Amino acid sequence: MLPLRYKWFWFGSGLAGLVAILGLALVPMNAPIPIANGDKILHALTFAFLTVWFMGVVEEGRTLRVLAGLVLYGLLIEFLQSFTTYRSADPYDVLADVAGIVAGWLLANAGLRGWCGRLEALLGAGPS
Predict the structure, then answer these.
(1) Is position 31 within any domain?
(2) Cβ neighbour number for residue 13 with a 10 Å cutoff
(3) Which helix (H) or strand (E) holds 40?
(4) Is residue 11 part of a domain?
(5) Which residue of 6, 78, 84, 110 is 20 to 30 Å from 59, comparing CA positions?
(6) Cβ–Cβ under 8 Å, residues 113 and 106
(7) Cβ(99)–Cβ(72) under 8 Å?
């Protein structure tokens, strides 16, 4: 992980987010998303956010691990959804996840990778 003062908070928050997203992916959906392909857009945005989040916490040398982990996480969600009667596994959801991961990776490389360290510096909490 990057030399952050609160690196375990940032990393733990990311893991908590993964758990929350998994929980949301496995409960029945109360209302459909009111735009065409809204679920695919939601998948892409979620995975772009997750990618930027973790790119802000880990060293650049761990990029491939993060990207591969997020792809596996997307596959895990679809695998687990296949066991429910109210959700279904959709390979296009995984493609949307991958599109979001690529977008997040591009955003991270465009300058968002260091978001976490910049936020800590802004708050006056540099590395310990």
Answers:
(1) no
(2) 13
(3) helix 38-55
(4) no
(5) 78
(6) no
(7) no
In the prediction, which pLDDT does 127 show? 60
pLDDT tens-digit readout, 74-127: 999 999 999 999 988 999 999 999 999 999 999 999 999 989 999 999 988 766
3-state secondary structure of 85: coil
pLDDT at 32: 79
The number of domains in the chain is: 1
Q: Which domain holds residue 61?
A: 37-122
Query: What pLDDT is stored for residue 126 in this prediction?
Result: 62
Q: Which residues contact 78 (CB under 8 A, 6 or more apart)?
A: 89, 90, 91, 93, 94
Q: Could you give the C-alpha distances from 98 to 8, 12, 77, in angstroms and in order?
A: 26, 23, 13
Tell me the pLDDT tens digit for each residue of 13-38.
999 999 999 999 999 988 778 888 88
Q: Which pTM was predicted?
A: 0.92
Per the CB < 8 A criterion, the answer to whether 18 and 50 are in contact is yes
Q: Do 105 and 63 touch, CB atoms closer than 8 A?
A: yes
The single-letter code of the amino acid at 13 is: S
**Is 95:71 a contact under the CB 8 Å cutoff?**
no
